[in-house]
Amino acid sequence: MFPLALSLTLVLSFPLTVVLSSCTTKVKQESYEAPWGDDSDASTELIMLTLTGPDTYYEYHGRDMGANYQLCEKLAAHLGKSVRIDVCQDTLDMLERLRNDEGDIIAVPLSKQHQAGFIKVANDWVVSKDNEKLAEAIRSWYTPRMLADIKKQEAYQLSVASVTRRVFPTMLSAAKGQISHYDHLFRQYAPVAMTDWVLLASQCYQESCFDSQARSWAGACGLMQIMPSTADLLSLPREQIFQPEPNIAAAARYMRQLQVQFNDIPNPSERLRFALAAYNGGTNHVRDAMALARKYGGVPQRWADVRRYILLLQDPHYYTDPVVKNGYMRGYETANYVETIMQRYTQYRHALATGTKVKSAVSTPAISSGSGGNERPAISPLEATPHRAAKKNKWRKD
Length: 398
What we know:
Elements: E1 24-28, E2 45-50, E3 58-60, E4 63-65, H1 67-79, E5 82-87, H2 91-99, E6 105-106, H3 112-115, E7 119-120, E8 126-127, H4 132-141, H5 144-157, H6 183-193, H7 197-208, H8 228-233, H9 244-261, H10 268-281, H11 283-295, H12 303-312, H13 316-319, H14 331-354, H15 381-384
Parallel strand pairs: 2-5, 2-6
Antiparallel strand pairs: 1-5, 3-4, 6-8, 7-8
Helix pairs in contact: 1-5, 6-7, 6-9, 7-14, 9-10, 10-11, 10-14, 11-12, 12-14
Protein backbone atom coordinates (compact mmCIF):
# COMPACT_ATOMS: atom_id res chain seq x y z
CA MET A 1 0.00 0.00 0.00
CA PHE A 2 2.16 2.63 0.87
CA PRO A 3 1.64 0.34 2.80
CA LEU A 4 2.07 3.89 3.74
CA ALA A 5 0.21 2.07 6.31
CA LEU A 6 3.03 2.98 8.56
CA SER A 7 2.97 2.74 12.26
CA LEU A 8 6.59 3.71 12.63
CA THR A 9 8.81 3.60 15.58
CA LEU A 10 11.32 5.23 13.27
CA VAL A 11 10.20 7.56 10.53
CA LEU A 12 11.77 5.49 7.79
CA SER A 13 10.91 2.08 9.20
CA PHE A 14 7.65 0.89 7.72
CA PRO A 15 5.66 -1.02 8.75
CA LEU A 16 5.85 -1.32 12.52
CA THR A 17 7.96 -4.41 12.93
CA VAL A 18 8.11 -7.26 15.36
CA VAL A 19 11.71 -7.36 16.56
CA LEU A 20 12.11 -10.95 17.53
CA SER A 21 15.20 -11.29 19.65
CA SER A 22 13.87 -13.23 22.63
CA CYS A 23 10.30 -12.18 23.22
CA THR A 24 8.99 -8.97 21.73
CA THR A 25 6.19 -7.29 23.64
CA LYS A 26 3.34 -5.23 22.29
CA VAL A 27 0.33 -4.01 24.25
CA LYS A 28 -3.08 -3.17 22.83
CA GLN A 29 -5.31 -1.34 25.32
CA GLU A 30 -9.06 -1.70 25.26
CA SER A 31 -11.75 -0.98 27.83
CA TYR A 32 -14.43 -3.59 28.44
CA GLU A 33 -16.64 -4.87 31.20
CA ALA A 34 -15.42 -8.22 32.49
CA PRO A 35 -17.99 -11.01 31.99
CA TRP A 36 -17.82 -11.99 35.65
CA GLY A 37 -18.21 -8.42 36.93
CA ASP A 38 -15.72 -6.36 38.88
CA ASP A 39 -12.54 -8.14 39.91
CA SER A 40 -10.15 -5.55 41.26
CA ASP A 41 -7.49 -8.13 42.08
CA ALA A 42 -7.30 -9.51 38.55
CA SER A 43 -4.68 -8.39 36.04
CA THR A 44 -5.95 -5.91 33.48
CA GLU A 45 -4.04 -7.54 30.65
CA LEU A 46 -4.00 -10.92 28.96
CA ILE A 47 -0.43 -11.87 28.06
CA MET A 48 -0.39 -13.80 24.80
CA LEU A 49 2.68 -15.92 24.07
CA THR A 50 3.00 -16.65 20.36
CA LEU A 51 5.30 -17.17 17.38
CA THR A 52 5.61 -15.22 14.18
CA GLY A 53 3.93 -16.84 11.18
CA PRO A 54 1.06 -16.50 8.70
CA ASP A 55 -1.48 -18.26 10.95
CA THR A 56 -0.18 -17.09 14.31
CA TYR A 57 0.99 -13.46 14.37
CA TYR A 58 2.56 -11.02 11.93
CA GLU A 59 2.31 -7.37 10.98
CA TYR A 60 0.98 -6.46 7.58
CA HIS A 61 0.79 -2.88 6.32
CA GLY A 62 0.77 -1.60 9.89
CA ARG A 63 -1.94 -4.02 11.08
CA ASP A 64 -1.66 -6.95 13.47
CA MET A 65 -2.64 -10.08 11.59
CA GLY A 66 -2.78 -13.84 11.98
CA ALA A 67 -5.88 -15.88 12.79
CA ASN A 68 -4.61 -17.04 16.19
CA TYR A 69 -3.69 -13.50 17.20
CA GLN A 70 -7.08 -12.16 16.15
CA LEU A 71 -8.84 -14.93 18.06
CA CYS A 72 -6.82 -14.09 21.16
CA GLU A 73 -7.66 -10.42 20.73
CA LYS A 74 -11.36 -11.30 20.74
CA LEU A 75 -10.81 -13.40 23.86
CA ALA A 76 -9.13 -10.48 25.63
CA ALA A 77 -12.06 -8.24 24.72
CA HIS A 78 -14.50 -10.85 26.08
CA LEU A 79 -12.56 -11.05 29.34
CA GLY A 80 -12.49 -7.29 29.72
CA LYS A 81 -8.73 -7.05 29.37
CA SER A 82 -6.09 -5.48 27.18
CA VAL A 83 -3.89 -7.86 25.23
CA ARG A 84 -0.12 -7.95 25.45
CA ILE A 85 1.63 -9.79 22.64
CA ASP A 86 4.91 -11.53 23.44
CA VAL A 87 6.45 -13.01 20.28
CA CYS A 88 8.85 -15.74 21.40
CA GLN A 89 11.84 -17.58 19.99
CA ASP A 90 10.26 -20.99 19.61
CA THR A 91 7.85 -23.45 21.22
CA LEU A 92 10.23 -24.35 24.04
CA ASP A 93 10.67 -20.67 24.87
CA MET A 94 6.89 -20.23 25.05
CA LEU A 95 6.44 -23.26 27.30
CA GLU A 96 9.19 -22.13 29.65
CA ARG A 97 7.72 -18.65 29.93
CA LEU A 98 4.28 -20.08 30.69
CA ARG A 99 5.75 -22.35 33.40
CA ASN A 100 7.46 -19.29 34.92
CA ASP A 101 4.16 -17.37 34.97
CA GLU A 102 5.47 -14.86 32.40
CA GLY A 103 2.38 -15.24 30.23
CA ASP A 104 -1.26 -16.25 30.50
CA ILE A 105 -1.87 -18.24 27.34
CA ILE A 106 0.07 -19.82 24.51
CA ALA A 107 -1.93 -18.73 21.47
CA VAL A 108 -0.35 -21.19 19.05
CA PRO A 109 -1.85 -24.61 18.26
CA LEU A 110 0.32 -27.13 20.13
CA SER A 111 0.86 -30.84 19.70
CA LYS A 112 -0.37 -33.26 22.38
CA GLN A 113 3.23 -33.72 23.46
CA HIS A 114 3.65 -30.01 24.17
CA GLN A 115 0.24 -29.78 25.85
CA ALA A 116 1.35 -32.18 28.58
CA GLY A 117 1.48 -30.51 31.97
CA PHE A 118 -0.79 -27.65 30.91
CA ILE A 119 -4.53 -27.13 30.51
CA LYS A 120 -5.72 -27.41 26.93
CA VAL A 121 -8.23 -24.74 25.93
CA ALA A 122 -9.40 -23.23 22.61
CA ASN A 123 -7.85 -24.31 19.32
CA ASP A 124 -5.25 -26.54 21.04
CA TRP A 125 -3.91 -23.56 23.00
CA VAL A 126 -2.79 -24.04 26.60
CA VAL A 127 -2.79 -22.17 29.89
CA SER A 128 -0.96 -22.91 33.12
CA LYS A 129 -2.32 -25.79 35.21
CA ASP A 130 -2.71 -23.25 38.04
CA ASN A 131 -4.98 -21.03 35.92
CA GLU A 132 -8.19 -23.05 35.98
CA LYS A 133 -10.33 -19.91 36.23
CA LEU A 134 -9.00 -18.62 32.91
CA ALA A 135 -9.32 -22.06 31.34
CA GLU A 136 -12.99 -22.31 32.30
CA ALA A 137 -13.69 -18.78 31.06
CA ILE A 138 -12.15 -19.65 27.68
CA ARG A 139 -13.98 -22.96 27.39
CA SER A 140 -17.32 -21.32 28.06
CA TRP A 141 -16.63 -18.68 25.41
CA TYR A 142 -14.87 -20.50 22.57
CA THR A 143 -16.55 -22.26 19.65
CA PRO A 144 -14.67 -23.73 16.66
CA ARG A 145 -16.68 -21.53 14.32
CA MET A 146 -14.90 -18.46 15.70
CA LEU A 147 -11.62 -19.43 14.10
CA ALA A 148 -13.29 -20.27 10.78
CA ASP A 149 -15.01 -16.86 10.80
CA ILE A 150 -11.73 -15.09 11.54
CA LYS A 151 -9.97 -16.87 8.69
CA LYS A 152 -12.81 -15.95 6.36
CA GLN A 153 -12.56 -12.31 7.46
CA GLU A 154 -8.79 -12.28 6.98
CA ALA A 155 -9.14 -13.75 3.48
CA TYR A 156 -11.57 -10.96 2.68
CA GLN A 157 -9.20 -8.31 4.05
CA LEU A 158 -6.42 -9.62 1.83
CA SER A 159 -8.61 -9.68 -1.30
CA VAL A 160 -9.56 -7.03 -3.82
CA ALA A 161 -13.13 -7.10 -2.48
CA SER A 162 -12.00 -5.21 0.62
CA VAL A 163 -10.80 -2.22 -1.42
CA THR A 164 -13.22 0.54 -2.33
CA ARG A 165 -12.11 2.02 -5.65
CA ARG A 166 -13.03 2.60 -9.25
CA VAL A 167 -10.82 1.24 -12.01
CA PHE A 168 -9.79 3.88 -14.51
CA PRO A 169 -8.08 3.20 -17.87
CA THR A 170 -4.46 2.15 -17.66
CA MET A 171 -3.62 4.92 -20.10
CA LEU A 172 -5.84 7.74 -21.37
CA SER A 173 -4.19 8.27 -24.74
CA ALA A 174 -0.90 6.91 -26.05
CA ALA A 175 -1.28 9.01 -29.18
CA LYS A 176 -1.54 12.19 -27.09
CA GLY A 177 1.13 11.03 -24.67
CA GLN A 178 -1.28 11.10 -21.72
CA ILE A 179 -1.24 8.38 -19.07
CA SER A 180 -3.71 9.88 -16.59
CA HIS A 181 -5.40 13.05 -15.44
CA TYR A 182 -2.59 13.48 -12.91
CA ASP A 183 0.40 13.50 -15.27
CA HIS A 184 1.17 17.14 -14.45
CA LEU A 185 1.47 16.20 -10.77
CA PHE A 186 3.67 13.20 -11.50
CA ARG A 187 5.93 15.46 -13.56
CA GLN A 188 5.98 18.09 -10.82
CA TYR A 189 6.83 15.73 -7.96
CA ALA A 190 9.00 13.15 -9.73
CA PRO A 191 12.18 15.15 -8.90
CA VAL A 192 11.15 15.06 -5.24
CA ALA A 193 10.73 11.28 -5.48
CA MET A 194 14.08 11.04 -7.30
CA THR A 195 12.51 9.06 -10.12
CA ASP A 196 10.94 9.32 -13.57
CA TRP A 197 7.39 10.72 -13.65
CA VAL A 198 6.29 7.70 -15.68
CA LEU A 199 7.49 5.38 -12.93
CA LEU A 200 5.52 7.41 -10.39
CA ALA A 201 2.45 7.06 -12.61
CA SER A 202 2.96 3.30 -12.82
CA GLN A 203 3.22 3.07 -9.04
CA CYS A 204 0.08 5.17 -8.62
CA TYR A 205 -1.90 2.88 -10.89
CA GLN A 206 -0.72 -0.09 -8.85
CA GLU A 207 -1.87 1.60 -5.66
CA SER A 208 -5.28 2.94 -6.65
CA CYS A 209 -5.95 2.50 -10.40
CA PHE A 210 -5.89 6.33 -10.54
CA ASP A 211 -8.91 6.63 -8.20
CA SER A 212 -8.27 9.60 -5.91
CA GLN A 213 -11.03 8.37 -3.56
CA ALA A 214 -9.72 4.82 -3.18
CA ARG A 215 -9.73 3.40 0.34
CA SER A 216 -8.40 0.06 1.55
CA TRP A 217 -9.75 -2.09 4.38
CA ALA A 218 -6.79 -0.97 6.50
CA GLY A 219 -7.71 2.69 6.01
CA ALA A 220 -5.13 3.66 3.37
CA CYS A 221 -6.44 6.59 1.36
CA GLY A 222 -6.19 8.24 -2.00
CA LEU A 223 -4.10 7.89 -5.12
CA MET A 224 -0.98 6.63 -3.37
CA GLN A 225 -2.83 4.83 -0.53
CA ILE A 226 -1.57 6.75 2.48
CA MET A 227 -2.62 5.83 6.01
CA PRO A 228 -3.79 8.72 8.21
CA SER A 229 -1.04 7.99 10.74
CA THR A 230 1.50 8.07 7.92
CA ALA A 231 0.06 11.31 6.64
CA ASP A 232 0.92 12.84 10.02
CA LEU A 233 4.54 11.72 9.68
CA LEU A 234 4.74 13.15 6.17
CA SER A 235 3.16 16.49 7.14
CA LEU A 236 0.07 15.74 5.05
CA PRO A 237 -3.02 17.22 6.75
CA ARG A 238 -5.62 14.51 7.16
CA GLU A 239 -8.31 16.70 5.63
CA GLN A 240 -6.21 16.75 2.45
CA ILE A 241 -5.46 13.04 2.27
CA PHE A 242 -7.86 12.41 -0.64
CA GLN A 243 -6.74 15.47 -2.56
CA PRO A 244 -4.57 14.43 -5.52
CA GLU A 245 -1.72 16.92 -5.22
CA PRO A 246 -1.08 16.65 -1.45
CA ASN A 247 -1.39 12.86 -1.66
CA ILE A 248 1.10 12.51 -4.53
CA ALA A 249 3.45 15.06 -2.95
CA ALA A 250 3.54 13.11 0.32
CA ALA A 251 4.20 9.82 -1.47
CA ALA A 252 7.01 11.46 -3.43
CA ARG A 253 8.61 12.64 -0.20
CA TYR A 254 8.42 9.13 1.17
CA MET A 255 9.96 7.62 -1.97
CA ARG A 256 12.82 10.09 -1.64
CA GLN A 257 13.33 9.13 2.01
CA LEU A 258 13.42 5.46 1.09
CA GLN A 259 15.96 5.97 -1.67
CA VAL A 260 18.15 7.97 0.69
CA GLN A 261 17.81 5.21 3.27
CA PHE A 262 19.07 2.70 0.71
CA ASN A 263 22.05 4.86 -0.24
CA ASP A 264 24.27 1.83 0.40
CA ILE A 265 23.03 0.53 -2.97
CA PRO A 266 25.17 2.38 -5.54
CA ASN A 267 23.19 1.54 -8.69
CA PRO A 268 20.22 3.99 -9.01
CA SER A 269 18.07 1.50 -10.92
CA GLU A 270 18.64 -1.17 -8.28
CA ARG A 271 18.07 1.35 -5.48
CA LEU A 272 14.70 2.26 -6.96
CA ARG A 273 13.55 -1.36 -6.81
CA PHE A 274 14.57 -1.60 -3.16
CA ALA A 275 12.68 1.62 -2.41
CA LEU A 276 9.54 0.28 -4.10
CA ALA A 277 9.83 -2.95 -2.12
CA ALA A 278 10.14 -0.99 1.12
CA TYR A 279 7.19 1.22 0.18
CA ASN A 280 5.07 -1.90 -0.08
CA GLY A 281 6.53 -4.37 2.40
CA GLY A 282 8.51 -2.29 4.86
CA THR A 283 12.14 -1.29 5.09
CA ASN A 284 12.93 -3.74 7.89
CA HIS A 285 11.67 -6.77 5.96
CA VAL A 286 13.74 -5.72 2.96
CA ARG A 287 16.78 -5.43 5.19
CA ASP A 288 16.06 -8.93 6.52
CA ALA A 289 16.06 -10.25 2.95
CA MET A 290 19.35 -8.44 2.30
CA ALA A 291 20.84 -10.10 5.38
CA LEU A 292 19.73 -13.52 4.12
CA ALA A 293 21.21 -12.81 0.70
CA ARG A 294 24.51 -11.90 2.33
CA LYS A 295 24.47 -15.02 4.51
CA TYR A 296 23.74 -17.42 1.67
CA GLY A 297 26.28 -16.04 -0.79
CA GLY A 298 24.16 -13.56 -2.74
CA VAL A 299 24.79 -9.89 -3.37
CA PRO A 300 22.68 -7.85 -0.91
CA GLN A 301 22.78 -4.77 -3.17
CA ARG A 302 21.36 -6.67 -6.16
CA TRP A 303 17.58 -6.84 -6.41
CA ALA A 304 17.47 -10.21 -8.19
CA ASP A 305 19.31 -11.79 -5.26
CA VAL A 306 17.28 -10.04 -2.56
CA ARG A 307 13.96 -10.74 -4.28
CA ARG A 308 14.63 -14.46 -3.84
CA TYR A 309 14.82 -14.02 -0.08
CA ILE A 310 11.85 -11.69 0.07
CA LEU A 311 9.89 -14.62 -1.35
CA LEU A 312 11.53 -17.00 1.10
CA LEU A 313 10.53 -14.89 4.10
CA GLN A 314 7.28 -16.83 3.82
CA ASP A 315 9.17 -20.02 4.68
CA PRO A 316 9.67 -20.71 8.43
CA HIS A 317 13.19 -21.96 7.75
CA TYR A 318 14.09 -18.44 6.61
CA TYR A 319 11.87 -16.17 8.70
CA THR A 320 13.24 -17.93 11.81
CA ASP A 321 16.85 -17.58 10.66
CA PRO A 322 19.03 -15.80 13.24
CA VAL A 323 19.83 -12.94 10.84
CA VAL A 324 16.13 -12.17 10.40
CA LYS A 325 14.88 -9.61 12.92
CA ASN A 326 11.29 -9.03 11.80
CA GLY A 327 9.83 -12.45 11.16
CA TYR A 328 7.32 -13.55 8.56
CA MET A 329 6.24 -11.36 5.66
CA ARG A 330 3.90 -11.85 2.70
CA GLY A 331 6.88 -11.68 0.40
CA TYR A 332 5.19 -12.69 -2.83
CA GLU A 333 3.08 -9.52 -2.67
CA THR A 334 6.13 -7.31 -2.37
CA ALA A 335 8.05 -9.15 -5.08
CA ASN A 336 5.04 -8.97 -7.38
CA TYR A 337 4.48 -5.29 -6.53
CA VAL A 338 7.96 -4.32 -7.72
CA GLU A 339 7.83 -6.55 -10.79
CA THR A 340 4.40 -5.32 -11.91
CA ILE A 341 5.28 -1.65 -11.50
CA MET A 342 8.49 -2.07 -13.46
CA GLN A 343 6.72 -4.00 -16.23
CA ARG A 344 4.04 -1.35 -16.50
CA TYR A 345 6.69 1.36 -16.47
CA THR A 346 8.43 -0.26 -19.44
CA GLN A 347 5.13 -0.53 -21.31
CA TYR A 348 4.25 3.09 -20.53
CA ARG A 349 7.61 4.26 -21.88
CA HIS A 350 7.15 2.20 -25.03
CA ALA A 351 3.59 3.47 -25.51
CA LEU A 352 4.66 7.10 -25.10
CA ALA A 353 7.52 6.63 -27.55
CA THR A 354 5.48 4.84 -30.22
CA GLY A 355 1.93 6.04 -29.64
CA THR A 356 0.69 2.46 -29.23
CA LYS A 357 -1.58 1.07 -26.54
CA VAL A 358 -0.32 -0.44 -23.32
CA LYS A 359 -0.61 -4.20 -23.25
CA SER A 360 -3.27 -5.60 -20.95
CA ALA A 361 -0.99 -8.10 -19.14
CA VAL A 362 -0.30 -5.72 -16.26
CA SER A 363 -3.08 -3.23 -16.83
CA THR A 364 -5.16 -3.82 -13.70
CA PRO A 365 -3.75 -4.86 -10.34
CA ALA A 366 -5.53 -7.81 -8.73
CA ILE A 367 -5.34 -5.92 -5.46
CA SER A 368 -4.71 -2.22 -5.06
CA SER A 369 -3.22 -0.63 -1.94
CA GLY A 370 0.23 -1.78 -2.88
CA SER A 371 -0.26 -5.51 -2.52
CA GLY A 372 0.62 -6.06 -6.13
CA GLY A 373 -1.87 -8.82 -6.75
CA ASN A 374 -3.14 -11.86 -4.92
CA GLU A 375 -1.65 -14.53 -7.13
CA ARG A 376 1.61 -15.97 -5.90
CA PRO A 377 4.36 -15.69 -8.51
CA ALA A 378 6.05 -18.90 -9.59
CA ILE A 379 9.19 -19.63 -7.59
CA SER A 380 11.88 -21.53 -9.43
CA PRO A 381 13.67 -24.41 -7.68
CA LEU A 382 16.71 -22.16 -7.42
CA GLU A 383 14.67 -19.47 -5.70
CA ALA A 384 12.94 -21.91 -3.41
CA THR A 385 15.99 -23.76 -2.10
CA PRO A 386 19.07 -21.53 -1.95
CA HIS A 387 21.76 -23.14 0.21
CA ARG A 388 19.55 -24.39 3.04
CA ALA A 389 21.41 -24.83 6.30
CA ALA A 390 21.63 -28.39 7.55
CA LYS A 391 20.14 -27.49 10.90
CA LYS A 392 17.09 -25.33 11.51
CA ASN A 393 17.98 -21.99 13.04
CA LYS A 394 16.27 -20.49 16.04
CA TRP A 395 15.63 -16.88 16.94
CA ARG A 396 18.83 -15.25 18.07
CA LYS A 397 18.86 -13.90 21.59
CA ASP A 398 20.67 -10.56 21.40
